[in-house]
Amino acid sequence: MSQANQTVAPKENTRGRVLFASMIGTTVEFFDFYAYATASVLVFPTLFFPNATPINAILSSFAIFGVAFVARPLGSIIFGHYGDRLGRKGTLVASLLLMGIATFLMGFLPAAQGHWTVLAPLALVILRFAQGLALGGEWSGAALLATENAPKNKRAIYGTFPQLGAPVGFILSNLIFVVLQTTLTAEQFLAWGWRVPFYFSAVMVIIGLWVRLKLVESLSFQKVLNEKKVVKSPFSVTMKHHWRPTLAGTFIMLATYVLFYLMTSFTLTYGTTASSVEQGQATAKAAGKTFNAEGFVPGLGIDRPTFLTMLIIGVVFFGIFTMLSGPLAEKYGRRKFLIWVTIGILIFGLAWTLFFGPGQAAAMAGLIVGFTLMGLTFGPMASYLPELFPSNVRYTGSAVAYNLSSVIGAAPASFVAIALWSAGNGSTTGVGIYLAIAAVLTLVALFLTRDTKDVDMEEFVE
User: Where's the Major facilitator superfamily (MFS) profile domain (predicted)?
Assistant: First the structure.
């Protein structure tokens, strides 16, 4: 056979490279995202809103936290456009760079005083918006990297690896905060210690870029190119022809988002708030500060290093059950498995005050149960959402669904929970009901959606 007639097999990504590249990218992205989330509770209220009451400072900090969620749908459209037109690889590199640069620059922001009284919070808003744009494009690309390169009967298993980046990034970020808070004085931590995780993100970005630059395009996207089925406007095509799976995917993710941000940002605020005015005054006196009792709402009164450690223990369960969810979703189907997990989230919401009432032991049990449910619901999403869409709009469709859900689920979760807690004068009954309502809406979406276990992702092109 002549050399001209020989068929050259297309290059494929190795299994190890796919799994590591999908996980390292989301680990970096979520590390950066959580560094902000933790700082928004521990530092930013004091640093950027020094003249506000404690509860208003926290609400202002969380309002800026929510800016990223507003940016995420825009990021999904921008990165989805290039991901479906030019390819997954370059888009993933760009999203990682944007997140890394925005997070790194946050570490240089000055406190809101003097000329920076307005400029510092404004710069924080801009950088937070950039983080949201980046994460809007990152998740879907990482999910496609894993699932489009997976054997047909292992997509849910491969899909758990980019999902694993969430607990890994969370653990790394909060471990650094725990070490800093236990080794530095309160003054040192507020002055410069909180900046260390933001600087450290640069190292992780370099590792992520090195791995991703070695990737080749998936066979699914190569098929789209070979058959000349690249669409001119992926977003327009998605909204015109695939709005039903987009809407369904948005609500399928709803309970997952609400659960996660209640378990992380809200519980960190609630858990570390003094349980009484007396405790607050004693804690402030020991730190050489003045306690402002105006607008005080009682929490659990657990010191911050201890509660961060409790969160890390809970997130270990998040990671373990994320990995276990893949084989279970592969065996029983994504839809059926997620229906049962969402029923579990509904029950957990109704039982919320049994866990997050007085007592550190009960709170630890609540964190373990909540994060276990989080792993079980989050793990299958990286396979389920992409499988709802054909290859030529898969990046855009899954990204828009995932990130629209962030607007209605994640963005208001911490803010609404704190408002309900404040309105209840320390009671978290309303918070649990809020989670239960989100679970009901997700159940409705799941019942109205087909299972996608047997979809052929390479042949599913329109």
Answer: 18-453
- What is the DSSP secondary structure assignment for residue 11, as one 8-state letter? P
Residue 291: give the domain boundaries. Answer: 13-215+242-447
Domain count for the chain = 1
Q: Is residue 7 part of a domain?
A: no
Q: What is the pLDDT of residues 348-399, one digit of tens each?
A: 999 999 998 878 999 999 999 999 999 999 999 999 999 999 888 999 999 9
Helix 243-252 / helix 254-261 crossing angle, nearest 10 deg: 30
Q: Rounded to an integer, what distance in angstroms lies between the CA atom of residue 420 and that of residue 416?
A: 6
CATH of residue 272: 1.20.1250.20
Using one digit for the tens of pLDDT, what is the confidence trace for 153-182? 899 999 999 999 889 988 888 788 888 878
Cβ pair 208, 89 in contact under 8 A? no
Cα four-point dihedral sign 388, 142, 107, 317: positive
Write the CA distances from 401 to 12, 247, 257, 380, 384, integer angstroms: 28, 7, 12, 15, 11
Residue 454's CB: how many other CB atoms inside 10 A? Answer: 9
Contacts of 412 (CB under 8 A, 6+ apart): 66
- Measured distance CA(240)–CA(61) in Å, rounded: 37
Global pTM value: 0.84
Name which of 167, 202, 197 is nearest 184 in CA terms.
Answer: 197
Residue 383: CB atoms within 10 A of its CB come to 29
